[in-house]
Write a structure and sequence with these properties.
alpha/beta; Gyrase A, domain 2; Isoleucyl-tRNA Synthetase, Domain 1; 5-stranded parallel beta sheet; globular; RNA-binding
Length: about 600
RNA sequence: GGCUCCGUAGUUCAACUGGAUAGAAUAUCUGACUUCGGAUCAGAGGGUUAGGGGUUCGAAUCCCUUCGGAGUCACCA
């Protein structure tokens, strides 16, 4: 591409003109700012040391050299230390000719490397998925697609936390007050039903704690000693011992939850290549800890608990096995990491997990290395920020949790209401309409969440999320629908635009801007993959769409009397639509042909 | 309290990882061919990038410091 051509040429020019060859990093090429003439800009400051001339003179010399050497560069101007280069129309036209009909445009060549394993979602089986999981799921799904587009083999895996005290709480509450109810009898999704019992446990338990405290027991002690809590712990022990009754109830209730999750995942449009269950991996973790003990890299204390001493890494000691021999979260994660690595021999292990677990992942890597696994370096924690609501943090106990299913349904309804109001698709069948509302509603939700840099905390304002104007998913979908409409019309009128025609005319500035933006699609995918950031891709698509809409507004297509120009513009539009669709697909968002 | 992260228009987000006069959207105000689809486009106002100091040709970005916020430091996950 043009950037590479320029870099090579500038490098040679420096050698010829100034006698030194610069590092590639010193050659900084960026998009020219809107207010100046040009397409690409070279920042010359890093080169003035070797040129021993003023920035302006350096820029001028390089500009003249480039203009003489490269047919792609037709003009240049110098503003302060910036060399603005005007790229020849022929280059852009050639670019369009080469790629406009390439369905794979943007996708990078296969790297032929070890697969990238990406874990996301990782739910607990005691309650339904909420807004926090939504960000996780959307991020994981999109990052996987982006990394795949960048040429890697990707494996999507889920890790279900299906064992532990929290599940026992739901089970116990169901046993006591459930009256043998099932999701079918209750007419409820399984994950919701189980979640209800989790809440019920908490309510009943609170009452008991209150009573204990009234008899003079300290709050902390009361929380541990409440009869319900003790009963739940006993249940957990029975579970670990393999008690048949408990295991079968556990399996039954977990299955309810899974069928609920499946529905949520399906509507969200996400899938996994493999699902790991902690109940199946925690024993492996234990054996890894044993291994560490024999190697002498872990320590056993007098009470029998096992610890990792991380003081040489500047951290504290970390518990790996309880005194009673049962495992903790870290133990299980050691096991799953090993299992996963062995399953795929992964070149990279990505974990999509909230930033509240940053410390956990630091420790995980260090402990794995201590035990002797060099591949611990391949672990990459995609640490994303929390989703906050206008009224503050989501708290399950205060009922401010935004439920994933309800949220999706609300978005569907909003799309339905708005679309009906506009009345543009009143000829759609019921099925077609439903499909469209789903596309638009979920598109709005997904884009709203993915456009924010994953690392940052984000604000989820329900009122703003249902706004479909501006920098939103529906805005992008609308542009796609509009282009589709244009192309339909061309077809109806029998205008063919797949043929390469004679481009012997000057390009409109708006056309160049669109072509320039399209030109950057492959490098944007590479950048987004490197940074594990769907936000970078989102912003790219948004910019593309804005450029197109400006073009659309200013430049006539069917009214154009020059047939060649008209055909060119149709082809440009088609190419734009294709990149919009391709990019949105990497975000997990579909685009309609009409809306 | 220790450690980590964050602080950008009223609000929600950008700024290609140190480059030009910090950009969008939203909200507010104004305008657009009786429309190739107005879920669009154009324009206006809105900023001491939390405050202060430093590093250099150049800082929202790097360093120090103060203030403010979040997370974490469990024999929870």
């Amino acid at each position: 591409m043009i950037e590479q051509i320029l870099t090579n040429c500038i490098s040679k020019a420096c050698l010829e003109l100034f006698g030194t060859q610069p590092e590639d990093q010193q050659i900084q090429i960026q998009k020219t700012k809107r207010e100046f003439e040009g397409d690409l800009t070279l920042v010359v400051f890093p080169l003035v040391k070797m040129s021993r001339k003023s920035p302006a003179d350096t820029a001028k010399m390089l500009g003249e050299h480039l203009q003489n050497e490269l047919t792609e560069i037709v003009r240049f101007n110098v503003v302060q230390g910036f060399l603005n280069l005007v790229v020849a129309d022929a280059y852009w036209v050639d670019f369009l000719k080469t790629y406009a009909n390439d369905q794979q445009f943007g996708k990078l060549k296969s790297k032929n490397q070890a697969p990238v394993v990406i874990e996301f979602s990782s739910p607990n089986t005691n309650k339904p998925l909420h807004l926090g999981h939504v960000r996780n799921n959307l991020l994981g799904h999109s990052v996987a697609a982006i990394v795949e587009a960048a040429g890697y083999e990707v494996k999507r895996v889920n890790l279900v936390n299906d064992r532990g005290i929290h599940i026992c709480k739901s089970m116990l509450a169901w046993q006591k007050w459930g009256h043998e109810i099932t999701p079918e009898k209750a007419g409820k999704k399984g994950d919701k039903l189980v979640g209800d019992f989790y809440v019920l446990f908490d309510q009943k338990n609170k009452i008991e704690i209150q009573k204990l405290m009234e008899t003079g027991v300290e709050a902390k002690a009361a929380e541990k000693e409440s009869p319900l809590m003790i009963e739940a712990q006993q249940m957990l022990q029975k579970w670990e011992q393999g008690d048949e009754e408990i295991r079968s109830l556990w399996k039954r209730m977990n299955d309810w939850v899974y069928s609920g999750f499946d529905k949520t995942y399906a509507r969200m449009g996400i899938r996994f290549d493999k699902t790991y269950y902690e109940s199946e991996t925690y024993l492996l973790g234990k054996s890894l800890v044993e291994e560490g003990l024999t190697k002498g890299v872990l320590i056993k204390k007098e009470d029998g608990s096992v610890w990792a001493d991380l003081s040489d890494s500047g951290l504290d000691e970390k518990l790996l096995l309880r005194a009673d021999g049962t495992s903790v979260y870290m133990t299980q994660d050691l096991g799953t990491a090993k299992l996963r690595y062995d399953d795929y021999r992964a070149g990279k292990l990505i974990y999509v997990v909230g930033n509240e677990q940053n410390y956990h992942f630091d420790v995980l890597k260090i402990v794995l290395k201590k035990i002797g696994f060099d591949w611990a370096d391949r672990i990459k924690h995609l640490s994303y920020g929390m989703v906050e609501l206008p009224e503050g943090k989501m708290k399950s106990r205060e009922g401010t949790v935004v439920d994933a299913d309800e949220l999706m349904e609300e978005m569907f309804q909003t799309a339905k209401n708005l679309t009906s109001e506009l009345g543009k698709v009143s000829d759609f069948t019921i099925e077609e309409s439903a499909e469209l509302f789903e596309m638009v509603g979920l598109g709005a939700l997904k884009y709203f969440i993915l456009k924010v840099d994953p690392k940052k905390n984000m604000m989820f304002n329900p009122e703003e999320s249902v706004d479909f104007t501006g920098n939103t998913g529906p805005f992008i979908q609308y542009t796609h629908a509009r282009i589709s409409s244009l192309l339909r019309k061309a077809n109806e009128q029998g205008i063919t635009f797949d043929e390469i025609v004679d481009f012997g005319f000057e390009l409109h500035p708006k056309e160049i801007r669109i072509l320039h933006q399209l030109h950057e699609y492959p490098s944007t995918i590479a950048l987004a993959a490197e940074n594990l950031s769907p936000a970078m891709l989102s912003n790219y698509i948004y910019d593309l769409v804005r450029e197109y809409n400006q073009f659309y507004q200013e430049v006539p297509i069917f009214k154009e009397t020059d047939r060649n120009k008209m055909v060119f513009r149709l082809q440009l539009s088609k190419f734009t639509a294709q990149v919009i669709k391709s990019g949105m697909e990497l975000l997990g968002i579909q685009v309609p042909d009409r809306m």
